[in-house]
User: Fold this.
Amino acid sequence: MASSPHPKTLFHLVPTDSIAHDALLHPDNKRFVSMSSRRLPGLEVGFHVPSKAHGHVITRLGRNADLILRQSTPQNPMSAIHVVFAVNPATYQVMLSVRSKRPSSVELSILEEHGHDRKDVKEVKEVLTGDGVIVYGQNYSIKIASYRFRLFWRAVPSKEATNTCIQGAAYVDFFKALVIQGYQASQELVRDMRSRDRPTEFDVSEAQSWHITRLNTAKLPLFQDIEGLREYKAKGAFGQVFKAVDRSTGHLFAIKVVDLTIYQDGDIEAARALLHKEIKVMERVKHEHIIELLGHQRFDTLSPEIFMPLRDGSLSLLARSPSLRINHDQLSLMVLEQMFQALDYLANENLIHRDIKPDNILYSDLGDGRYLFQLADFGLAHHSSLAVTLCGTGYFQAPELWPQVSKVHAGQSHKLDIWSLFATIVAVHSAFPDFPPKTSDYSDVMGMLRDKA
Assistant:
């Protein structure tokens, strides 16, 4: 009879065919065979399995790996290290990473379980080929070359009640803490190794730029999130922003979910056209200080979604933040320099943003008092020759948009964005107590900005 699992076990690979069952009998695997949460023997996966630490790698499988899968045929060849279960150090998501030159030899599909004893099991949703996130607490069917397993997370007895196991959020939190603990311990062991023996480690800076690789690599699929892992981040005038996990890499990105029903004129198709224009502008522009478009979906619904890189927040939040690492003079100069570069680029492309404001400038904290700023939200952007409609956000609008008040009678040009950037800097420099004023009278707004000039 199989023994109880090692306390560092995350999940078991339970065989579903004779070839996979033979893996349990291999002499090198026997000490990692224990009883799974389904009362069936399986191979343990955890940081305790490797004979030496590999940093973010949890367990390797293949002909010459931590867990031995020796069956290899011309139709289904098995690599020395075919797959790796690893942790994404930036997000602590557990990943299935294919190391074989044949990504299609590895398939992953979600298991749906029914019945009191959960023995009624079926595969659901589409099959994911190649790399993928192993969601905490979610069980799977997995194919590795000729081998077929079911992946079951370990049962964790409850400390509060006998003969019961922890469930729900506490179950997920338990395993996430176990993964973080195992990863940190593995990192400590790696640091003690000679440099030539150290494994190639994941660079956490990839969390800022991983999407560029995906965009530039045509063979990789489009970004896909795991909807159950979305986290609410912020609410804007036209919808909500969520933090999402890319199902293939475990990295984070942002999803802007637009609610077309709250468009001010109630015209759904006009709102959809405005969103379509924003997408087209974002597809066109490529600049370090302009947020990238990673993709979009559900455009035919009332809640279209736009994919973007995840940033730390808006300039509005940063300017008010007690953890700001520089003073507001330095912040203002940094924003001014980077946004001038973005606006110069837009001017050369004959584009006017038309809604520059602190909420539409996103930032990433690069450390050591350095910040990356990127212009976002191009819903009001226009080609300079077409810009005629009223636009922008009151306090940050240029005088050209208020000719009866400002006595400035001029067409819309790139100067609109320069004025709005000036108003933005005025607000940021004082961390907002001085500006915007507590009035909607544009003559007061303009007078205050003139005093600051």
User: Anything to note?
Assistant: The chain has nine helices and 22 strands.
